[in-house]
Amino acid sequence: MRRFWPRFVSERAGLAAAAYVLVLTIVMLALEVMPGSDPHAITSEVMLPPSAAHVLGTDELGRDVLLGILHGIRASLTVGFAAALGATLIGVLIGAVAGFYGGILDLLCMRLSELFQVVPSFILAAVIVALSGPGLPQVVAVISLLGWPQVARLMRAEVMRIKHLEYVDAVRCLGTRETSILMGEIVPNALAPVLAAGTLIVGHAILLEAGLSFFGLSSADIISWGRMLNSGQRFLFNAWWLSVFPGSAIFLTVLAFNLLGDALGSALNPRSAGKK
Amino acid sequence: MISTILEISDLTLSYATPGRKLMALQGVSLSVGEGEAVGLVGESGSGKSTVARVALGLTPAGVAHIQAGCIRIGGRDVTHLGEDAWAVLRGHPIAIVFQDPLSFLNPVMRVSRQIAESVERHTPELAVAPRVRELLERVKLSASCAASYPHELSGGMRQRVLLAIAIACRPKLLIADEPTTALDVTTQAEILALLEELRVDLNMALLLISHDLGLVASACERIYVIYAGRTIEWGPTARVFGAPAHPYSEGLLHAAQTDRDRDGRFVTIGGDPPDLTHTGVGCAFAPRCGYAMAPCTEAMPEPIALAQSRSHMVRCWRYAEGSLSEPAGGMAEQP
Amino acid sequence: MTAPLLDIRDVSKMYRRSRTELVHAVRSVSLAIAVGETIALVGESGSGKSTLGRIALGLLNPDRGSVLVEGRSLRALYGSELRRLRTTMQPIFQDASAALNPRRSARQHLLQALAVRNAATEPEAITLLESVGLRPGTDYLERFPHELSGGQRQRLTIARALAPRPRLIVADEPLSGADVSIRGQILNLLLEIKRAHRIAYLFITHDISVARAFSDRVAVMMQGEIVEAGPTERVLTRPEHAYTRRLLAASAGFRLGGSKELAAR
Q1: Chain C partners (3+ C-beta pairs within 8 A)
Q2: Which residue of C has its CA nearest to B240?
Q3: Each residue's pLDDT tens digit, B64-101
């Protein structure tokens, strides 16, 4: 792992993306500690374009757009991370077991994953929200359930490739238990593509959350970029700042996670920067 | 006077990728005349596959740079030819077959169709079906094999398909890069016999590139030995393998025959194959050479003739005038 | 008559290649290896020699027949007993880069192997590295597989195979991946180990000349069966089976002119 950092740092795009995510995280944490002005505050300064007092303008209720974007980080990042984590954990477990043991277990796991893949994501999300009410945990659950099959497939394919390699047999000859082989030898080497895919899920989750908010399916007291887009779309032509800034925030954040995923993928490969 | 089909003179080629520069070839000289069977022997990192590719302009553009020397095909200088011009030259007069036929055959196309493609492209004036049948006969492939997909055939049969595609172009020179390495010993013998038959019947020259000395010895009249991107010894097979001059050739020969020394240990060349990213000015073999002397680390000697006829040449300081010296303790055996 | 170290009795193994196709990889093969003996298993691709090698290592269970190690049947053992017996036999594979975990350093590989006999210490690892010619051992401890040359990787796999002090090494084409000039180095190393530790070898190869140079007995395999077996000299100079003769003829065609004794230097 000591080779990880030099390789990661050398991927400039990934580095910029990581810095961006770090900044977002710091802002989010800072706002937890020092809330500052209330982003929900309704004022009389309605529909103001960007100016010195309100750097990104105000919306139809006089709320400051910049404050909205800064507070919206929380919704996006927490949903993104939590959902990606959930999907990755489930996917890695199921994929590793299916790939390593094969047979009936593999069959069952794959049919299960297909079941979840076949469901259209947005419809499922909307149904769950309609049934259990809006809220971040629901969105996280939906995205985890929808995202794990993709991770599981990747994991399974890697595990199936690796389990035939000679070094697995060599360790078997040392008398190692099968589960130790799976956890100790195979999974660590199979994780690289999976982790890269995991970061893509973050982007996907942020988009899905934005989409749900856009359609008004998320709770009104949580500030999210999607919700801001929802309110702003009516004023697209007279108050462009209400759509452009939240939209850019979504775009940049999703892009950052995608680039991060790329950089992570190549940095985790022990051979990528070296010879052979 | 037989005409020379391929002539490579003192070629220097590097592969440059961000952060790394690899000197794949550093002064390779090689020639193949009409109807000749010539061998190029080398191990991993020797540059022999690069020679195969450079002769057909197949080195990766933008990464491979020819820094010195030249390549002539049929007398014409093709060193810095563009892709369009190369497309005309590939197949005729020079065709090539590679080591792993499965990677070079279209997996979703029947084999006969792939041969037909070659016929259509290179000899459009001929009727396709009869010509394909003729080619199949020449490489001894049955019609049922021809109707199969590549993955349905054995390694030997796939190699015959590649040969059929290659000779469809009526090449004057066939370059075979490790054509039998992936095959069984008994199949190797068959393919080699086929190559020889084709060479004689079609008056086709053969450049056989391999790490297998035995293979090259049985098939070729003249041999080049390549090490770390340099041709270090060449001449008639009987001379190069009968009385190898360069210490590397000598070591290679003994290793290939699993010869043993008086203590019963296998003769080997100590050390590791050269690292082409860090090449010095001297002889690349010096660190592993039991005869290494002072000039060896300073420069590479020019080719020195070992016979009046200048047929057997070597690049080794031991043969420079007046510098034959005692070996410094025999073959250096270091791990 | 002491019991053989490895006794393979009438072993068969089949694979289902497709719904209709059944491949008999190994058919009723019997082979016995005595303590300290070297047997070369010679055959071409598809002969079943690699499958037999894996059955010998206990990595594959035969469909029929039994494998006895030091007189005890592998089939009759379970769990930790089976795992312990497995460590008496160690593998060396053809592709050294696939035989090493790309994420582990040489040190980690060796410590893992040494742990089998509770000797997982750095000095032991260094001794192992130096015994396979990777000197000084301390230089190689922290290297990862991709930082080693092909020959060095193969040496590391040999060091790992030696770590648990096995009584049998099953070497499946250990020289095929190596350059010709390095093969002698690896062969010398294996010979040295054989002399020093009295380890038995099951040497699987397609190269008859290596078999000739290295082994006491030779078994020739073709399409899952052993067609001929016996002392090396006898089998290679007076072969009885047609296939053995074909194999010898094909490799002899490439001989460069007979074995030569190195002249005094």
Answers
A1: A, B
A2: C256
A3: 888 889 999 988 898 888 888 888 888 888 899 988 88
Burial (CB < 10 A; 0-12, 13-18, 19+), residue B48, is buried
Q: How far is B133 from chain C (nearest CA, A)?
A: 30
In this complex, is the C-beta atom of B265 within 8 Å of any C-beta atom belonging to chain C?
A: yes
- What is the C-alpha separation between B255 and B267, in angstroms, rounded? 6
* Residue tagged 């982007």 (tokens): A203
Q: Is the peptide bond before B93 cis (omega within 30 degrees of 0)?
A: yes
DSSP chain A: -TTHHHHHHH-HHHHHHHHHHHHHHHHHHHHHH---S-TT---S--SPPS-SSSTT-B-TT--BHHHHHHHHHHHHHHHHHHHHHHHHHHHHHHHHHHHHH-HHHHHHHHHHHHHHHHS-HHHHHHHHHHHH-S-HHHHHHHHHHHHHHHHHHHHHHHHHHHTTSHHHHHHHTTT--HHHIIIIIIHHHHHHHHHHHHHHHHHHHHHHHHHHHHTT-S-TTS--HHHHHHHHGGGTTT-THHHHHHHHHHHHHHHHHHHHHHHHHHHH-TTSSS--
B residues 242-261 closer than 8 Å to C (CB): 242, 248, 251-261
Rounded distance, CA B191 to CA A84, Å?
Answer: 55
pLDDT confidence band for A3 (50 / 70 / 90): low
Q: How does pLDDT run across C156-208, given as a tens digit for each residue?
A: 999 999 999 999 999 998 887 777 878 888 888 988 888 888 899 999 988 88
Task: Judge whether C209 is closer than 8 Å to chain B, CB to CB.
Answer: yes
CB B148 within 8 A of CB B111: yes
Minimum-distance CB partner of C262 among B215, B259, B270: B259
Lookup result for tokens 């030819």: B81
Q: Cβ of C103 under 8 Å from any chain A Cβ?
A: yes
A182 vs A201: CA distance, rounded Å: 25
Subunit contact C112:A174, Cβ cutoff 8 A: yes
C-alpha R_g of chain C: 19
- Please tell me the distance in Å from A130's CA to the nearest CA on chain C: 47
| Probe site for chain B from C21, C180, C188, C232 (most B CB atoms < 10 A) | C180
Question: Cβ separation of B259 and C45 shorter than 8 Å?
Answer: no
Q: How buried is residue A12: exposed, middle or buried, by Cβ count under 10 Å (0-12/13-18/19+)?
A: exposed
C260 has pLDDT over 50:
no
- Is A274 within 8 Å of C116 when comparing Cβ atoms? no
ipTM over 0.90: no
**φ and ψ at residue A179, rounded to 5 degrees:** -65, -35
Q: Which of residues 266-305 of B touch C (CB under 8 A)?
A: 266-270, 272-273
C residues 246-265 closer than 8 Å to B (CB): 246-247, 250-251, 253-262, 264-265
Tell me if A133 sits within 8 A of A125, measured CB to CB: no
Name the 3-class secondary structure at B192: helix
Structure tokens at A86: 């959930």
The top-level CATH class assigned to A4-34+65-268 is mainly alpha
Which two tokens mark A275?
A: 């010879």
Of C164, C208, C211, C221, which is closest to residue C187 (Cα–Cα)?
C211
Best of B44, B190, B225, B288 to disrupt the C interface (most C CBs within 10 Å) is: B44
Q: For B118-147, how does the pLDDT look when each residue is reduced to its tens digit (9 = 90+)?
A: 889 888 888 888 999 899 988 988 888 888
- Residue B248 phi, psi dihedral angles, 5° rounding: -70, -45
Tokens of C169: 């090494």
Cα–Cα nearest to B73, from B178, B165, B3? B3
Tokens 């659950």 correspond to A141
In Å, what is the CA distance from B289 to each residue of A16, A21, B303, C60? 50, 56, 18, 45
